[in-house]
Amino acid sequence: MTLTPDFLDGNAAAGDLESVFGTDMTVATGRCRGCGQRMSLAQTRAYLRGPGIVLRCPGCESVLLRLVRSADQMWLDTGGLDYLRIPAPQ
Ligand SMILES: [Zn+2]
User: Fold this and answer.
1) Which one of 32, 47, 57, 76 has the lowest number of neighbouring Cβ atoms within 10 Å?
2) pTM of the model
3) What separation in Å is there between the alpha carbon of 21 and the centre of ligand 1?
4) How many angstroms separate the CA atoms of 50 and 44, rounded?
5) Is 61 left (phi over 0), alpha (psi -120 to 50) or beta?
6) How far is the CA of 56 from the centre of ligand 1 (A)?
7) Residues with Cβ within 5 Å of ion ligand 1?
């Protein structure tokens, strides 16, 4: 029996995150509130099978970011991050 992970890397969430922030978020970096690990969003674990996307810390599995979209609204929760550093538009 082969087990396959139920997550992808954070690049899988790039399109949805870019639609919120208007820039490529895979190179944005943050620090996990749970364990203090710093990482780019591309290095996070993306869970895409729910009603939205969930990014989890590759170090401790804490939820870093949640994004849920309805027909006319989006909900964003970054409560698992101490900070999110986004490259400024040029
Ligand atoms: Zn962590």
Assistant:
1) 76
2) 0.89
3) 23
4) 17
5) left
6) 8
7) 32, 34-35, 37, 57, 59-60, 62
